[in-house]
Design a protein that fits this description.
Chain A: It is a multi-pass membrane protein. Chain A: It holds the Pfam family Cation_ATPase. The complex is a heterodimer of chains A (1111) and B (374). With 1111 residues, chain A is α+β, with helices and mostly antiparallel strands. In chain A, 47% of the residues lie in helices and 18% in strands. Chain A has 39 helices and 35 strands. In chain B, a hairpin with a 5-residue loop joins β8 and β9. Chain B has a domain of 244 residues. Chain B has ten helices and twelve strands. Chain B has a four-stranded antiparallel β-sheet with strand order 3-12-5-10. Chain B has a four-stranded antiparallel β-sheet with strand order 4-11-8-9, with no helix packed on it. The chains are: A alpha+beta (1111), B alpha+beta (374). Chains A and B meet through α9, α12, α34, α35 and α36 of A and β1, β2, α1, β5 and α3 of B.
């Protein structure tokens, strides 16, 4: 690179409007005149991930907690209780609220304290800084932009650094970014060429340079900057800086003794790592949405109850002024309040009295259920992968139940359905096929020039590194070659497979040394090529190239890439033969790549160089300009041949897909691969069956017909089938009517494009959706990452609002994982980015089956029961209190004692349901796995739909009426003790409450299908606790209470026979309708799940009979 | 009972479900394995009893419930019917009723108490102990403001509370600057009619019937919950500095002139009144007529006279006053509800059992045969 270019570039850059941040290395001012010294302020290198400080914790945390609508509601109730004269003491709602708020605050405070501690340890970890030619040790947070930092092997970079020089002679260093994106493979970073020769601190310290770079941005793989090096008053030398020069905070130095790096602009909170810590948008599950809807209904019920009682109170008072009330008339009138205000106060008092119908504890229980329940996923041994050494991961526990609601599964192909474990199968040069192993390639005598070039191309055109140590924690690929074991390492498994395949065909890539690639050819001679440029792979271009200079001085450009991106750029070569072979391979499900080359004359090379450097030096739009440059350089190829690499299907992928299909889910495969390969994989994985009628919506077809016609035709084909009937009898007709759709990226974008021709042609989007709805499987090929997300979004927004799940393993799947209702990442070979951004991460695709069919199913039924039961038990709890108002003159007299009011939801009835929602298994794990169709029973939020909700509410009201009137008739103007003494209102309430606690707990017991010893313990234990508590609560004159109303009430009640009889009677009557409903439903129209339960029980009985009866 | 209603199928799963042999595979060096523990709990494989409610299994439970409940119900019903109860309304609403004038001319200030007599006849003799109740209707003793208008500390004999009653007692907390003992609306509205019962034999001689006032309040109330301040000796001194409730005629320490230790807060009539009733129509135990020794019934059939010292006004709130005589069985007073309810529920269960039997035969056999594939 000549100086001329540099200066020119420098000028163009200076004309830009935005002045990029400028860093002075070693804080030395540039020679005067070069540029005005503008002192800039940068943040220090302190990492602040904590949310609170010691001082603002309480106000800030409280503010954030009360922003939640539920907490706010309870706060309002509490305040109302404090302000006005209400039936229950503020303690009853204040205590639970205080408890919830405190627990949350402690949890958040603890988490924040941990963050503070982590911040502290990061900020105070020692860092070596070069100052005045010496290495000085300081603390990380004292680093300033412009400091020169020394990092030793296995140390973590304290901030984003520009690599100046490395202990390795070629100016490179190896880095793992495992903590950033999870990729444990070693990546190579390059020193700035002008400084890579520095060896000592003094040399580094003598450097006089400035760095300009873009504003901080979170993309880990993008960096654009420029370094200006001043040497002796001369014009500064400018060098471009890219992502390959930037060492990111959080990454670790490997296999390099030490490096000198200078602090780039990015310190502290501006580092890319810190910028990437932004939280993802919150996903809400369907259950949560229905829960909120139910809450609103209950709020309405609550308000209407309060209104009814308030109105009745005043209607009742006028004609019927009671003696007791008249006692207060004068008292109230002394306040001389307006009637309206009094009525409003009464309304609020009724609100307070009935507010328990929306319980605080439900939120706590739901949170706990989700948090604790998610451990079962991480604990699941069957989802543990021995090879990877990891099990499933839960990144958010908010969506557990959503796993049981999935209707659409969007899956990536490579690495998800397939192993992403590439194996080289064959290559074809000009139509001649070479297959390793099979007694070598067919030795063609005339070792044609193309063959040589082809093998060299594949040996040179890649970004594979050779590792010679044995202890490499990257991907292990041993090659034994007389020398110590060495490995090929690359971020792309395809490349490794290709290079290894070449080795088996006789051409071994040895290493990259001093910019020279060394190849051991067939005749054991070492050939050296100087590596001049690498035109890196990207997913838009779908190809990569290298420019090398052979030992004979020839400039060669080798390119390999997808057939669709190579063929249009080929001018000569045996295109037809290669194309035929490529297509044949693609049909077999192999991944094919085409290889082409081009000779460059010196002048052509110079020009290419010029394009590239110009683009690389650009500070803005560099990506775009690079793409332009690549486009200019990569053309007029001579086709050499093609390769085929097999990507085997993942273990049990077909079985998993079949199960998902049976479970009523629609599986879409979204891939960037070409149609034939993808279709072959789909057939292999049973996504398409032999009987599946394939509908194609591809570019090839739309070129022949207009998109409009194709869409309408397909729609007609699909609708001709009486699909309405097939849906209901899915099981029997499962195989005979089945459509599969194949669509490619280009057509998809045409479909999704807003229709410019006006509404006359109808909305393609709708027609497309209509077609998709009737296809059991859809394959989208040639998709860009963003298109994947678009598809997910399209389905999400369609009128049924189905629940979607996206599963993928690579960075290109992140967008769809984030978009879908549930995002699942596979801990794959292409790094951890997908797993990091997902809601759940699993090691293998096959684990999806258990995740959805077992865990998802369980979580859904558990939380559905939890929600319904919570509302039910609070209706049972509060409705008698409502009824009591009719008999106490609407005076807001509580039916139950304060202790019962407070503890009902906290301790008497909370544990059984929490435990139920953690361990319930209505059918066994084996049954769920064996019969995926059971998943359909819970589809579409079936357990939380309005009729079900209504049933539970009615059941609650019925039970409440039974409790109340049962006790009413028992108390009605008579006594039920054998000594003639009378019971008061607190005994009345206690009787109702006892029946209530027992009924509600036994109702749960009736719903429990899985009685482990813990269930027994908790259910009977909490009933026992209630009895013991009541005995204790009534057994002592409590010194700190100002009332003793419960004294001996419970014991007196239990000493009466009729009380026992009526408790038993009322419990029986309350449970009766639910039992009858259950039995009738099961007998008349059993669901598949119920059949499975009975089937299991019967089989068990048969089994027992077979084993235990004497023959 | 619940357990019997469920089909039981005990499913004891083996603790280790899938122990793959490859777990020892990655053991080169001290690699910290993230492999989850293979415990029954973590793998959700705890042995469990898995009951299912089906027609077949619930059926016997229904029959059993029916068979148990119906006899209990019949027993309860018969017991309830054997209880004798007599009720007389002496409010005096009707112009012909003997207490009409008392009710009409009532005033809080009159020191002269009005006495009226009600005649009634018992058709059947009352055996064993007879319990005498007074009943009030449309009296909302369960009104919230009423219920809370008391000070349990004061009633428990706390001296500071005696002199400084709780705020809950307002507006019956103090009178003329002196604390009210006992304070509050409940105490203030103490039922103060006096009822006396006479038997009129064939020669028209009035024989007073002895009415015991011991044992009408809960034992725990009388002995623990209610206590006079600083012992029982000389209540007049103890209650010095307090005043009687506004509506009372006598101070609390003179409630029972006949018996010294039935005064103050531990007066049983007072304790009975202080236990607020659950419903607006209620009765409270007033006196007990102990069974006489021998075979003579406690209350033989015949004519009786009830003398009422009419102090308690109820007409202002459209209330009613009653006197009730009742015998008591093991299940308390006359209440056919429980017996009828038991018989009804038992019959329903029995009927449902029959229905389920039909359903079971109609559907279950079909399902079962279809459900077991192999």
């Amino acid at each position: 690179i000549t100086r001329g270019h540099q200066n020119k570039l420098f000028l163009t850059l200076q004309n830009r409007t935005r002045i990029p941040p400028c860093v002075y290395i070693g804080h030395k001012e540039p020679p005067p005149g070069a540029e005005a010294y503008i002192p800039q302020r940068y943040p220090d290198n302190r990492i602040v991930s904590s949310k609170y400080t010691f001082w603002n914790f309480i106000p800030k945390n409280l503010f954030e907690q009360f922003r939640r609508i539920a907490n706010f509601y309870f706060l309002v109730i509490f305040l109302v209780q404090l302000i006005i004269d209400t039936p229950t003491s503020p303690v009853t709602s204040g205590l639970p609220l205080f408890f919830v708020i405190t627990v949350t605050a402690i949890k958040q405070g603890y988490e924040d304290w941990l963050r503070h501690k982590a911040d502290c340890s990061i900020n105070e970890c020692p860092v070596d800084v070069v100052q005045q030619g010496k290495v000085v040790r300081t603390q990380s947070h004292k680093l300033r932009v412009g400091d020169v930092v020394m990092v030793r092997e296995d140390e973590t970079f304290p901030c984003d650094l520009i690599l100046l020089s490395s202990s390795r002679h070629d100016g490179t260093c190896y880095v793992t970014t495992a903590s950033l994106d999870g990729e444990s493979s070693h990546k190579t970073y390059y020193a700035v060429p002008d400084t890579m020769a520095f060896r000592t601190e003094q040399e580094v310290d003598s450097l006089h340079a400035t760095i300009e770079c873009e504003q901080p941005q979170p993309d880990l793989y993008k960096f654009v900057g420029r370094i200006n090096i001043y040497k002796d008053k001369e014009e500064p030398v400018a060098r471009p800086l890219g992502a390959e020069n930037l060492l990111l905070r959080g990454a670790t130095l490997k296999n390099t003794q030490h490096i000198y790096g200078t602090v780039a602009v990015y310190t502290g909170m501006e580092t890319k790592m810190a910028l990437n810590y932004q939280s993802k948008s919150q996903k809400r599950s369907a259950v949560e949405k229905s829960m909120n809807a139910f809450l609103i209904v209950y709020l309405c019920i609550l308000i209407s109850k309060a209104v009814i009682n308030t109105v009745l109170k005043y209607a009742w008072q006028c004609p019927n002024i009671s003696f007791t009330y008249s006692l207060y008339c004068t008292f109230l009138d002394t306040f001389s309040l307006l009637q309206v205000i009094r009525a409003f106060t009464d309304f609020l008092a009724f609100m307070v009295l009935f507010n328990y119908i929306i319980p605080v504890s439900m939120y706590v229980t739901v949170e706990m259920q989700k948090f604790l329940g998610s451990y079962f996923i991480t604990w699941d041994e069957e989802m543990f992968d021995e090879e990877l050494g990891e099990g499933a991961q839960v990144n958010t526990s908010d969506l557990n139940e959503e796993l049981g609601q999935v209707e659409y599964v969007f899956t990536d192909k490579t690495g998800t359905l397939t192993e992403n474990n590439m194996e080289f199968i064959e290559c074809c040069v000009d139509g001649n096929v070479y297959i390793p192993h099979s007694s070598g390639a067919e030795e063609t005598d005339e070792s044609c020039e193309h063959e040589d070039l082809f093998f060299r191309a594949l040996c040179l055109c890649h970004t594979v590194q050779v590792k010679e140590e044995e202890t490499v924690d990257g991907i292990k690929r041993g090659i034994h070659q007389g020398r110590p074991t060495s490995f090929y390492i690359s971020s792309s498994p395809d490349e490794v497979a290709l290079v290894e395949g070449m080795k088996r065909l006789g051409y071994t890539y040895l290493r990259l040394k001093d910019n020279h690639m060394e190849i051991l050819n067939k005749d054991d001679e070492i050939e050296r090529f100087e590596l001049l440029h690498v035109l890196n792979f990207d997913s838009v271009r779908r190809r990569m190239s290298v420019i090398v200079k052979s030992s004979s001085g020839e400039y060669l450009l080798f390119c390999k890439g997808a057939d669709s991106s190579i063929f249009p750029r080929v001018v000569s070569g045996k295109v037809e033969q290669v194309k035929a072979r490529v297509e044949q391979n693609a049909v077999e499900g192999l991944r094919t790549l085409c290889v082409a080359y081009k000779r460059l004359s010196t002048s052509e090379y110079e020009e290419a160089c010029h394009h590239l450097t110009e683009a690389k030096l650009a500070l803005q739009d560099r990506e775009q300009r690079l793409a332009q440059a690549y486009d200019i350089i990569e053309r007029d190829f001579v086709l050499l041949g093609a390769t085929a690499v097999e990507d085997r299907l993942q273990e049990k992928a077909a079985d998993t897909i079949e199960s998902l299909h049976k479970a009523g889910m629609k599986v879409w495969v979204l891939t960037g691969d070409k149609m034939e390969t993808a279709a072959a994989t789909c057939y292999a994985s049973k996504l398409f069956r032999r009987s599946t009628q394939i509908l194609e919506l591809t570019k090839k077809r739309t070129e022949e017909q207009s998109l409009h016609d194709v869409l309408f035709e397909l729609n007609r084909t699909v609708l001709r089938q009486p699909h309405g009937h097939t849906r209901t009898e899915q099981d029997s007709n499962f195989d005979c009517l089945d459509f599969g759709l194949i669509i490619d990226g280009a057509t998809l974008s045409a479909v999704l494009k807003p229709n410019q021709e006006g509404a006359a042609h109808g909305n393609y989007r709708e027609i497309f959706l209509e077609i998709c709805r009737n296809c059991s499987a859809v394959l989208c090929c040639r998709m860009a990452p963003l298109q994947k997300a678009q598809i997910v979004k399209l389905i999400k927004a369609s009128k049924e609002h189905p629940i979607t799940l996206a599963i993928g393993d690579g960075a290109n799947d992140v967008s769809m994982i984030l978009e879908a209702h549930v995002g699942i990442g596979i801990m794959g070979k292409e790094g951890r980015q997908a797993a990091r951004n997902s809601d759940y991460a699993i090691p293998k695709f096959k684990h999806l089956k258990k995740m959805l069919l077992v865990h998802g199913h369980y979580y859904y039924i558990r939380i559905a029961e939890l929600v319904q039961y919570f509302f039910y038990k609070n209706v049972c709890f509060i409705f008698p209190q409502f009824l009591y108002q009719f008999f106490c003159g609407f005076s807001q007299q509580p039916l139950y004692d304060t202790a019962y009011l407070t503890l009902y939801n906290i301790s008497f009835t909370s544990l059984p349901i929490l435990l139920y929602s953690l361990v319930e298994q209505h059918v066994t794990i084996e049954t769920l796995k064996r019969e995926p169709s059971l998943y359909r029973d819970i589809a579409k939020n079936s357990l939380l739909r309005w009729p079900v909700f209504l049933y539970w509410t009615c059941l609650g009201v019925f039970d409440a009426v039974i409790f109340f009137f049962g006790a009413y008739f028992l108390f009605d103007n008579t006594t039920f003790t054998s000594n003639g003494q009378m019971f008061g209102n607190w005994t009345f309430g206690t009787l109702v409450f006892t029946v209530l606690v027992f009924t509600v707990t036994l109702k749960l017991a009736l719903d429990t299908h899985h009685w482990t010893w813990i269930n027994h313990f908790v259910i009977w234990g909490s009933l026992l606790f209630y009895v013991i508590f009541s005995l204790l609560w009534g057994g002592i004159i409590w010194p700190f209470l100002n009332y003793q109303r419960m004294y001996y009430v419970f014991m007196q009640m239990l000493s009466s026979g009729p009380a026992w009889l009526s408790i038993i009677l009322l419990i029986t009557v309350s449970l009766l309708p639910d039992v009858i409903k259950k039995v009738l439903c099961r007998a008349m129209c059993p669901t598949a799940t119920e059949r499975a339960q009975v089937g299991f029980a019967l089989k068990w009985r048969l089994y027992k009979a077979a084993f235990f009866t004497p023959k | 009972m619940i357990a019997a209603m469920m089909a039981s199928s005990y499913n004891a799963k083996e603790e280790d479900g899938h122990h793959s042999g490859s777990s020892s595979h990655g053991g080169a060096g001290a690699v910290k394995s993230k492999k989850p523990d293979n415990t029954a709990f973590k793998q959700q494989r705890l042995p469990a009893w898995q009951p299912i409610l089906t027609a077949g299994t619930v059926l016997p439970a229904f029959f059993v419930i029916g068979l148990i409940f119906i006899p209990i119900g019949i027993g309860l019903y018969v017991t309830s019917n054997n209880i004798k109860e007599f009720e007389v309304d002496y409010t005096g609403v009707d112009i012909n009723s003997p207490c009409y004038s008392c009710a009409k001319n009532f005033s809080w200030n009159s020191t002269q108490s009005c006495v009226c007599s009600v005649n009634f006849t018992l058709e059947q003799p009352f055996e064993s102990n007879v319990f005498m109740y007074y009943g009030l209707s449309n009296f909302y003793q369960n009104h919230r403001r009423y219920v809370k208008s008391r000070d349990d500390s004061q009633l428990n004999g706390d001296l500071s509370a005696l002199m400084n009653p709780s705020k809950e007692c307002e507006p019956y907390r103090t009178n003329d600057g002196l604390p009210i003992a006992p304070c509050g609306a409940i105490a203030n509205s103490l039922f103060n009619d006096t009822l006396d019962l006479y038997y009129v034999d064939s020669n028209s001689t009035k024989t007073p019937i002895p009415l015991a006032k011991k044992g009408i309040a809960w034992w725990t109330d009388k002995h623990v919950k209610f206590r006079n301040p600083s012992g029982n000796t000389n209540l007049t001194v103890t209650f010095q500095g307090t005043t009687k409730p506004v509506n009372w005629r006598k101070p609390v320490y003179e409630l029972d002139p006949s018996e010294a230790d039935n005064n103050g807060f531990i007066n049983e009539d007072f304790i009975v009144w202080m236990r607020t009733a659950a419903l607006p129509t209620f009765r409270k135990l007033y006196r007990i007529i102990q069974k006489k020794s021998g075979t003579t019934p406690t209350l033989p059939s015949g004519r009786y006279i009830l003398d009422i010292t009419y102090n308690y006004p109820v007409l202002s709130f459209d209330g009613r006053k009653r006197m009730i005589l009742s015998t008591i069985s093991w299940m308390g007073g006359k209440n056919p509800f429980l017996g009828i309810a038991y018989i009804t529920v038992g019959s329903i269960c029995f009927f449902l059992g029959v229905v389920l039997l039909i359903i079971h035969h109609k559907y279950d056999t079909r399902n079962n045969s279809a459900d077991i594939p192999n």
